[in-house]
């Protein structure tokens, strides 16, 4: 039996220190997981718990280290916002995973950006519609190479920043997450059976804002290095 169209390519992430690759299955994202960011978005982190949404796996854009990579500005938006995030890549799956065991399911970590057509997201909020048009643009999930847990452990603290043309716009610390990575995995596994190859974008600190064509973003997480993207 043959496919009637060519099989779509599967997104794979390079692994630091290895020639092997990590195939991606599904991409989950956590919303409002840093208190200051929740407040700047008009939410109360003391009353509203973080929540999940999804990006298409083929919305990822793999960004190598050591070079500036062109990042396409998407159509139908005038407010294209950056959100720098720690990404957890799962090497094991399951359902109803206990929080105490959750980190054993993580293969590694990467730097990611949850790029957002904010005007479309805001319109969807006003009309009580899904966020897909705001969150799922082509290439809206830039992501750097994957660092295995075996090499770096589980980052629980450290600076997470984003600058535009050398001017710092976002600055936070991984320790400021409302839900830890372990808590996110445990909760997510009560909604879905998670699988090897799943990614979790774990939330962004405050300072999100618009980027314009011609500007260069630098996203960095302590212990994971940095990635550079020029908006074109």
UniProtKB/TrEMBL annotation:
Single GO molecular function: acetylpyruvate hydrolase activity
Superkingdom field: Bacteria
Pfam families per record: FAA_hydrolase
Keywords from the named record: Metal-binding
Residue ranges of every copy of the Fumarylacetoacetase-like C-terminal domain listed in the record: 27-231
Keyword Cell wall biogenesis/degradation tagged: no
Name assigned to this protein: Fumarylacetoacetase-like C-terminal domain-containing protein
